[in-house]
Design brief:
13 helices, alpha+beta, Regulator of sirC expression, contains transglutaminase-like and TPR domains, 2 domains, C8orf32 fold, four-stranded antiparallel sheet, Serine Threonine Protein Phosphatase 5, Tetratricopeptide repeat, two-stranded parallel sheet, SirB1_N, globular, 55% helix, Papain-like_cys_pep_sf
């Protein structure tokens, strides 16, 4: 039996990490997103840096430290002493999504800061989760008396009234409802680790799409297709990137797979027309 001793490619490594929802290693997967851009990235070094921060925080929490006080201690370390916060000067820089750089610069966007915060929170026994709130990734901690929803940019907690106003501003269809009628709980459900990584990738997808950076956009699409094997719209979107890169065979394969798995999509006519055009050009 022949053994393959070659190191896995970044995409192969990513596929191994995300193959199961059980024990999904959120931080390691989030770190691995940078490997296309930074192939020499030492993931273990970055994990060790976070381990050191976790130990530093754990020393401040005794057995009698309440969960609410643990949140305060975490925020004091994360935002106060370490100075983590938003990269307001260049919010749409792709580097804001690369967690190893956020750990170095202390600057990021809500979701990358949130991933780091969650790892620290769980290390001190907090039942913390990400929240895929519209327009702004958030954090929540479940307590015996309820839940606390926090802004990952500052650590500040939100009231129900503030969250309702944000929802109504983001979703005009809710603006006519009174506060009691807005389905706030629906938008505060915990985001799974897979959903969190999908949101990180889609942030990068939008940045690279706007920049017309096709090679990087394709790398992101490849990861989305692996991460979300039933999301056939991502296969279709990868097909359009292949078209722009003149990858005819790959584009045809993606479009055909999309139509096979989504029998009556709204864009079927456009996709079939593109398939015909590609076949004509072969």
């Amino acid at each position: 039996m022949l053994l393959n001793l070659q190191a896995p490619t970044p995409l192969e490594y990513f596929a191994t990490l995300v193959q199961s929802d059980q024990g999904f290693p959120l931080l390691e997967v989030a770190l691995s997103l940078a490997q296309d851009e930074y192939p020499q990235l030492d993931l273990q070094h970055t994990l060790a840096l976070l381990d050191a921060l976790q130990m530093r925080l754990q020393k401040r929490c005794g057995r009698q430290t309440s969960m609410l006080e643990r949140i305060h201690l975490l925020n004091r370390l994360f935002y106060g002493e370490l100075g983590f916060g938003v990269n307001a000067n260049d919010y749409y820089d792709p580097d804001n999504s690369f967690v190893h750089l956020v750990l170095q610069t202390r600057r990021g966007i809500p979701i990358s800061l949130g991933v780091l915060w969650l790892e620290l929170a769980r290390s001190i026994g907090l039942e913390a989760h990400g929240v895929a709130f519209p327009g702004h990734f958030m954090l929540k901690v479940l307590l015996s008396q309820g839940q606390v929803v926090l802004d990952p940019l500052t650590g500040r907690s939100f009231s129900s009234e503030e969250l309702t106003v944000q929802l109504q501003n983001l979703l005009p269809r809710l603006s006519h409802l009174n506060e009691e009628s807005v389905p706030l709980a629906m938008f505060l459900q915990s985001a799974s680790p897979r959903e969190t990584i999908a949101r990180m990738l889609r942030n990068l997808k939008e940045i690279y799409r706007l920049q017309q950076d096709l090679p990087r956009l394709l790398a992101v699409q490849n990861r989305l297709v692996i991460l979300l094997p039933q999301a056939w719209n991502e296969v279709r979107d990868r097909g359009w990137v292949h078209v722009d890169l003149h990858h005819t065979e790959a584009a045809l394969a993606d479009f055909q797979s999309y139509l096979e798995h989504v029998p009556q999509p709204l864009d079927a006519e456009d996709v079939r027309a593109q398939i015909q055009q590609l076949r004509t050009g072969i």
